[in-house]
Design brief:
about 210 residues; alpha/beta; Rossmann fold; seven-stranded parallel β-sheet; 9 helices; 7 strands; binds adenosine-5'-diphosphate; binds magnesium ion; ATP-dependent RNA helicase DbpA
């Protein structure tokens, strides 16, 4: 049987105490199936409905595997919209509360470039953003992915629906080859299979039908 207790994972103590504060007592089914694999460094495709807890599934994985002492961009999360990117960043910051000096930076379109450039100069551990703006920063040499360990596509179906296929493709090409990749989606249309083939290496598929 799949373990549903967070205590089966040997998470960092700060993460354990934040989960208690958030009242996350048990893993949701998608978390129970994907989180051990993510922590183990595997490439994962996870399909689950809205509300199934996908953000904490990859968020806890990123935070668990992050080396906080190394102030370099180690994780990049791509989201379809600014609202979704803000939600993801907010959830990751909640999960990371108290972990010393951890920096989660959002980079989305529709907001001025200037402050983003300034923030990038200060550095970050985790970047969350929309594909167009991320690619823009990469093209201009402002975003360095040399130390990237994990690339996440969140709401991949929506991202492709919104026409981000080319930008996502280009970002994948610019990311280091030796990385972990994670793909989260509510649905799995054919278009995603194309990008999954390019993104992931020997991925493990995790699919959860119900929310809880
Ligand atoms: P999805 O991305 O799959 O649509 P979210 O990551 O937004 O889902 O999570 C949905 C809600 O469930 C959020 O309010 C989140 O705080 C909550 N949640 C996530 N994981 C847990 C958990 N293990 N226990 C309790 N609530 C959780
Ligand atoms: Mg989500």
């Amino acid at each position: 049987m799949t373990q549903t207790s967070f205590s089966s994972l040997a998470l960092k103590p700060d993460l354990v105490s934040n989960l208690a504060t958030l009242d996350y007592n048990e893993m949701t089914p998608i978390q129970a199936q994907s989180l051990p694999l993510i922590i183990d460094g595997k490439d994962v495709i996870a399909q689950g409905k809205t509300g199934s807890g996908k953000t904490a599934a990859f968020g806890l994985g990123l935070l668990q595997n992050l080396d906080v002492k190394r102030f370099r961009i180690q994780s990049l999360v791509l989201c379809p919209t600014r609202e979704l990117a803000d939600q993801v960043a907010k959830e990751i910051r909640k999960l990371a509360r108290g972990i010393h000096n951890i920096k989660v930076l959002t980079l989305c379109g529709g907001v001025p470039m200037g402050p983003q450039i300034g923030s990038l100069e200060h550095g970050a551990h985790i970047i969350v953003g929309t594909p167009g703006r991320i690619l823009d920063h990469l093209d201009r040499g402002r975003l360095n992915l040399d130390n990237l360990n994990t690339l996440v596509l969140d709401e991949a179906d929506k991202m492709l629906e919104m026409g981000f296929q080319d930008a996502v493709d280009a970002i994948i090409d610019l990311a280091p080859k030796n990385r972990q990749s994670l793909l989260f989606s509510a649905t799995f249309p054919d278009q995603i299979k194309g990008i999954a083939g390019k993104l992931l290496k020997d991925p493990i598929m995790v699919k959860v039908e119900s929310t809880h």
